[in-house]
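Chapter review: from sequence to fold.
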Amino acid sequence: MVSKLKALIRDCAGNIATASAMILPLLLGAGAYATDYAIMYHQKSALQEAADAAALASVKELGLVGADEDLISAVANSYVHSIFDNSSTINNGNAELEIIATPSKENSQVKIDLIYSWTPFLAHLFDYRVTPIKVSATGALAGQSLTCIVGLMQPQRLAKSSIHLDDRSLVQANDCAVFSNSTSRYGLRADGSSEMNAGSICSAGGVLEFGGSAKFTPNPITDCPKIEDPLIDRPAPVVMACRHNSIEVNIDTVLKPGVYCGGLTISGNASITFEPGVYIIKDGPLIVKDTAAMTGQKVTFFLTGEDSVFDFQANTTIDLSAAETGTTAGILFYEDRNVDYSFDFNPFFLNNLPKDVRLHKISSNDARNLLGTLYLSRSILLIDSDAPVADNSAYTAIITGRLWLKEGPTLTLNSDYTDTTVPVPNGLLGTTPRLYN
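The token string follows.
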């Protein structure tokens, strides 16, 4: 009886071994097939990012005098290889990559085609579409579109993002372009349920969605070419001798253009009207506090020297439109590019900022009209208002070191610049590349 049982066990073991030998190749084949498709998915995604970045970089060359097809192709090739050669996701050493750049000056666009030939484990025996992988992207100059946000700051030890949306923050910039120049993988950051809607969104680095429910429309393009300060060539106003020193106004007053040294504070229930012209705020802050109101049309505020920042507190009213003529036309706030500045700060300790970190604040719950450009390239612009900001402006553009929406504000950047006599500064129109896949 025992011998028969042993024989039965041997027979069963033999059958199992035979079945295993038959099934194992099928299992291995299925695994290799699935692996091929997983690799293909990651490769295609990485190649698409490379094509997107190359299209945006090369289309900018169309606006250069003397740019030809060879130059544009060289830029595209350089950009793709800078990504491809350093990517373990797509560059396995045995694959071949073909880069085709097709510029069209007539249509102001450049099309990038990438053809990537690789050798799968098994999938190509059953599906000829697995290799080569083909992706394309088309970059086009957007004609008269408006660039409405540029964050110029480069990554710091603690502050990595040049555009940062705290939880519940909302940026509505539906028809204009947003750029983050920070090359950090956190170059553009959105926390919690924050949201950004724009015509196009580009980050020179990456995008951090902290908390999981942030929303971008459209999806940001990462690894975009950095853009230069679009107003770098705009001449600064001439600073004359001080006209006023450390002024605080707490009654209804009409102020005239001039040099306000030591800062200017508007307090109490005062309603201050600024006559048209250029106001130099030197070596001190521009503060609006209590329930005061600040109104001005055809004005520019030039901020120069130490502590020349603005602070618009919660219960105030701010209603301003930029100059329409002269060297400051279209600029509402112009920060002197020669001020001492730094972005090396700890975001958790705003009340203890280093002396050279410049912080402008819009906390006003009635700052609905900020018509023109806020040019604050050496500073942080922090917005923490409980009410919409700039939504009644025909257009608003922000060029700053770091844009920070803190504690859930709503920033609306309209682009109805044809509806106003306040001009858009040169450099913010017609130089914006957009991506079409």
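Two observations follow directly from the output. The chain has two domains: 34-141, 146-430. The first strand starts at residue 96 and ends at 104.
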